[in-house]
Structures are given as C-alpha cells and as structure tokens.
Amino acid sequence: MDNLPYILAIESSCDDTSAAVMHGNKVLSNEVASQEVHTAYGGVVPELASRAHQQNIVPVVDHALKVANIEPSQLNAIAFTNGPGLMGSLLVGTSFAKSISMSLNIPLIPVHHMHAHILAHLIEDAHDEPIDFPFLCLTVSGGHTQLVKVDGPKDMQILGETIDDAVGEAFDKAAKIIGLPYPGGPHVDRLAKVGDPKFMEFGRPQVDGYNFSFSGMKTSFLYALQKRVKENPDFVENHKADICASYQRALLDVLFKKLEKAIKDTGIKHVAIAGGVSANSGLRERLTSLGYRKNIRTYIPPFQYTTDNAAMIGIAGYYNFLAGDSADLSISASAKVKF
Description:
Distance between the termini: 32 Å
Strand order of the largest sheet: 3-2-1-4-5
Helix content: 40-55%
Number of domains: 2
Number of strands: 10
Order of helices and strands: EEEHEHEHEEEHHHHHEHEH
CATH class of the largest domain: Alpha Beta
CATH topology of the largest domain: Nucleotidyltransferase, domain 5
CATH superfamily of the largest domain: ATPase, nucleotide binding domain
Oligomer: single chain
Radius of gyration: 20 Å
Number of helices: 10
C-alpha cells in the first residue's frame, strides 16, 4: 500500500470547485464547493463561475489535504482537468495545478473530463466488486451525451454521441419552460416519480447508428405544451408531474434504444452509466431493469461520483501516472479536447 502514489486532484471545468486526495485508487478526501450564484440566472454564467473558482480553490484544496491528513510534501503528483469545459473555469484550476506542481517539483497530470466520469467506476469504493472490461458506458451530463466502449483505463472508443444538444440540457430546458428552478433536471426527476409517463407523447428523433439528437425533442416539448395551454391556460400547473414523467420517459427511450442496440451489436455484457444525469432515478431504475431483462451486469455510480468531482479526476490521474503520462508547464486549458 505504501508504494501507491498520493495524488492531489483538482476539478474546475464548470461551476463546482473540487479537490480530492487519492492514495492509489482509494479516495482519502473529496471536497466540493458549489456555486449558488447561478440560480438567479437560470444557468451557469461563465464569468461568475471563474470568479467563484478563484475564491473557492484555495480553501477547498486546503480542506481536502486536512481531511486526508496529508502534507503537501507527501504528494507524488497533481492531476487536474484541462478540458473540456468552460475556458475561464478551466484556467483557474490549470493555473493552480501548475503552481503546486512547480513549487513541489512533482509531475503535472492533465485529465480529460469525460474520461474521468467513466473511470469513476474504478474508484475503490465505487462498487462492491470491481468493474470488468470491456464495458459499455452511457455518459450523460449537461454538456455531453456519449456511448463509449471501454476496453481499459487508457483504451476507450466513442461509439456514438449527440449531434446537437446533450440530454442534461434537454432536461434543464424543459424544466425552465414549465417554471421549475435551475438546475431543472433533479426537479423533473422528482416530479416524474409521481406522474403518469403515458400522459403525453413527444417526438423522438431518428438518427443513424449510435448517435443521439435532443434538439428536436426540446422543440416538440415546447410546441406540445403551447397547444395544450391554448386550450387550457392552467394545463401546465395542473399537470406538471404528468408532463415531467412523460418527457423523462421520452428522453430515456432515446437513450436506451441506442444502448440496447450497442449491447446487441457488440455482445458486451457489462454496462455502466456516468455523468451528472446518471443520478436520475428513472435512468437508474431503467438500467437495473435492463440488466435483469438482458441478463447483463450493470454498474450504477454512487451519487458522490456522478456530478463533477475531483475524485474522478484523481482516479483518471492515477492511471495516467502509472502510464507515465504527464505534462510540462507549457500545457494550457482547452474548452474542447479530443476524446
């Protein structure tokens, strides 16, 4: 155990400032500071996000080290998100990581944000039994929707992805239309639990292969409600739970149609979900049901590893460290990084 590296990880890709300390694949601390300032605007304001990161990063890192009971001199490397994400937010984490790397003279390890979401399944306490390779991972968040074939920690292939909007954005946009607070996805999920999923029908896009499309579904949602509101001005207020249940069912139908096609085509019997939307209870129940129906192993991440957090950056950084993948101080953050 003593031969395993201590890695400080930093995540600042959007509006959560997070720092974690890893000992190998074990999480010693995973601290997150969320930003409430965006609620009033109904979405993340990039400039406000980067300012909040500047305020939060020092206390969050300090707290992560104290919780882990680790001195900076004990660290073997520092991992950080260098993309994709909001450029201003990424720059704060990148600059801070560079500073620590230089001051302690330890390796600087860049991490791809979407790789990290998937590799969260390899954290020691993520599952009772380690996940087996290869596995399919449906990665769903506010900014991304991807179906990935994972052959190893450093061997991943995108089978399909959204050609326009992410499913998380589709949840949040619908929530805003019917007057739910930001972020809307959790509120839609909460109401969907007590609504009728067959109350309304919404259009479902037909996209070739394993790719997804959610832009048209948002339009379908808006037009369907506008038609009903013309007939009854109180329609939305009287049927919010049913609307949410119906829309959530439509979005999940699209996701699972492609996931089931990939399972059939590849023959892979291990399937995982990752990303912020993987906290959705309907998605979790649907995946569990699919596992029983198709006789496949399913892997659902603990809630603390679904949203943006530094532990997932740390586990990805750990495997990059083992592979000798580090960067010099000339590396910069990038809003878009090739998968």
